[in-house]
Design goal:
- By secondary structure, this protein is an alpha/beta fold.
- The chain has 10 helices and 14 strands.
- A hairpin with a 4-residue loop joins strand 11 and strand 12.
- Helix 1 crosses helix 9 and helix 8 packs across helix 10.
- The radius of gyration is 19 Å and the shape is globular.
Amino acid sequence: MLRTGVCGVGHLGRFHVNCLKELGGLVGVYDPDPAAAASADVPVFSSYADLLDAVDAVVIAAPTPRHVDCAREALACGKHVLIEKPVAPTAAEGASLRALAAGSTVHVGHIERFNPAYTAALPHLLDARHITAQRLAPFTPRGAEVSVVHDLMIHDLDALLAVRDREVVGLEAWGERVVSDTLDVAHVRLEFSDGCRAVLTASRVSPVRVRSWEAWGTGGGVHVDFAARTAARWTPEGPVDLSVGAQNALLEELRAFLAAAAGQPLAAGIRPAALEDGLRALGLADHITACIAAPTFAS
């Protein structure tokens, strides 16, 4: 069993800790805030270097600006690394990890790949010609250090790129700053090289929570509710509910990471986000925010 630690015990880090307790092998945590570290109710290391000395693998759930430095230090020690999304503040910064990643398993925490509603709908999404994605939430200061594109929309960008493994040949984007110093609302239209089009909306100043997709292709339509974890197909004969499991997406993401790090085969249909996947989604997020900042709002 791999010895595993968690770097960063904030809101998301505590969920990682709880799941790793269930999976076994959790050695301890490090957080520069002693109170946050103690809240995990597991052994606490006084430094990140001490934690790395004691583990084979580490989950990096620190704030985004710390991701690259924490990952670089872990990879330099030959550790396996799961980095929460986004993998770095920018794709250019994240690319520096490539040179250190050889010989280590590096996954990025794009958890929606493990959402049971998404995995149930995946076979019906592969022939989609039009996809509409909405990800709306009320404002919270957590995560507001990055744009809504990098905080929320990036979930849908990665899940979309996993479905449409094609080049993005058209992009139009617009958005607004409402309550933070970065984008709080963003709308994007994408066109892929195979003709598939996608329209994405993300907002962190919405009065309601929505995390859903609608997709249409030659075989009919698919609706995916990521929040309710339900999925249904629409055909000329009417709607058909898809069978959706009850698995914990974060638990399954961590299970896949530890299996890959241990050299074990992954379960059929499991496609974790590798470093290159995380960089691709992040690069597209960077491009979107650049387009919004440009006078034409388009590229």
